Amino acid sequence: MVLGISNKTVRNVLSAVLLKLGASSRAEAVAISRDAGVGGGRTAPGSTRA
C-alpha cells in the first residue's frame, strides 16, 4: 500500500504556511524561519548536504 498526498493538498498547505508567516514566496518563508531560529543550520543525521 502506498500513501500519498495530492498536488492540491501541497499547494493548500504551502499557501497556509506562507500566509501565517506573512511571506510571499518559499524563499522568504525560509528567511523568516531562519531569522526566528528554526532549523539552526543543522543537517539531518546521515545527510551529505553541507
From TrEMBL:
<dbReference type="GO" id="GO:0006355">
    <property type="term" value="P:regulation of DNA-templated transcription"/>
</dbReference>
<dbReference type="InterPro" id="IPR036388">
    <property type="entry name" value="WH-like_DNA-bd_sf"/>
</dbReference>
<feature type="domain" description="HTH luxR-type">
    <location>
        <begin position="1"/>
        <end position="37"/>
    </location>
</feature>
<dbReference type="InterPro" id="IPR016032">
    <property type="entry name" value="Sig_transdc_resp-reg_C-effctor"/>
</dbReference>
<dbReference type="InterPro" id="IPR000792">
    <property type="entry name" value="Tscrpt_reg_LuxR_C"/>
</dbReference>
<dbReference type="Pfam" id="PF00196">
    <property type="entry name" value="GerE"/>
</dbReference>
<protein>
    <recommendedName>
        <fullName>HTH luxR-type domain-containing protein</fullName>
    </recommendedName>
</protein>
<dbReference type="GO" id="GO:0003677">
    <property type="term" value="F:DNA binding"/>
</dbReference>
